[in-house]
Amino acid sequence: MAADWLTFAHDPQRSGWASEEKTLSRDNVSALTLKWKAKLPNESSHLSALTAPVVAAGVTTSHGVRTAVYVAGVKGTVWALDAETGEQLWSHEFKYRILPGKGGYQGTFLCPNGITATPVIDKSTRLLYLIAADGALYGLDMGSGDVRVGPIQFVAALAKSWSLSLVDGVVYTTLSQGCGAGLSGFYAVDVRDPHHPIVHQLLLSNSDTAGIWGRGGPVIGDNRRIYGSTADGKFDPAAGDYSNTVIAASIPDLNLLDYYLPPNWDYLRKRDLDLGSASPVYFGWKSRHLLASGTKESVLRLFDADALGGADHQTSLFATPQLGNENGLCCEGLGIWGGLSTARDEAGQTWLFVPLGGALAPTAPKFPLTNGPNPHGSVMAFKVIADSNTRDPLLEPAWVSGDLNIPDPVVIANGIVFVLSTGENAVQKGGEEKRLLNTRPAVLYALDAASGKELFNSKDAIATWVHFSGLAVANGQVYVVDRDSNVYGFGLPPK
Question: What is the pTM of this model?
Fold first, then answer.
């Protein structure tokens, strides 16, 4: 049966687990090869270029029934590509006239004035939903690219929106950085009746603070709650400011239900070590609903997803020591960025996979399996096990990978961990021009999910680096984008 990759990190929980994947395996992944590379006519804007790919099988197009790969360019064009060949199936260009505001972050890598949110696919209606730069939500026909829904004014024009999610006919996103004067928070639009859309908002700040800027945007559990980790700023619940917290709200109406505030939140604020750098991940474990969250500070925490932070809003179920970012630096790509991932293996063991920028800290636990030096970054793997006394969950270190240059969130498929070493220069000091220097081409790795052993790497197949992206895996193929607006399809050679 054909599989899909309908949203960033595969599902609304942002697990990163391609649970349907059966073609790729630890035995054959070493034979992975670049099947095609498609150069798209998209101009980058600051550090942004293409959104992370999403994939759907069985799409009826003018070329026949195809598996289609969809990406959106920051400048306003959306493409559908044939997953087998990279051939363009269609493109749709959005045209609008918006004068970007001046001052603040507008016109920088924080607010690049374009499409920033990874689209989401609704196969039941055959629609690809995305937010254009004018802040409107559109539903494009998956087979032709024609507009079938919208425009529905959803967020502020030129806002910085993050990966879309779709649950029960409601599209969700998050905003950050105050781009386009859009306030940080959760946003939802009910599109079940596209002629009468209903928009909900949960604003978490009165300024440009408290942004939810983890790569996955909204994280939605099967317990009817939505989650996000917020950035620096004021913490003042009475005034509606929820910076440096993990937030839980109801869906679809987005009423605030709960939050967790780290005990050292003021230190994190002063050092710009906010929780917003990585999306949490929701998962079931035994009979419980759990949420895992990581930070720039490099502390990893587990929460009861139904009662974040306990009675005092400051108590997690489990917290690691500092895993990386030894000196507590804010703006060099050190610490936990992007998002966490989770999967269960064939024996039923639940795993948590954590991308880390920079070297491990001396306070990090000892990993039973190591795979060489990793000064620039790594993936850490933990087993979720029960405390022998309390039976609460805790994280047992399992393995750490070899060296990765600023790794993206990982994807898990049939016992394999796929991770992209992005090669970007994440040092913000000196401005964007300097960030274009000292980059390296991205490299795709396949690791054994049980040990971290390298099974495959793409060597020089990818031309350039990439900023804030993600992988997609479906039907035996892996899809990657880079900053030069290339889309890559990796797969097994013909038998």
Answer: 0.96
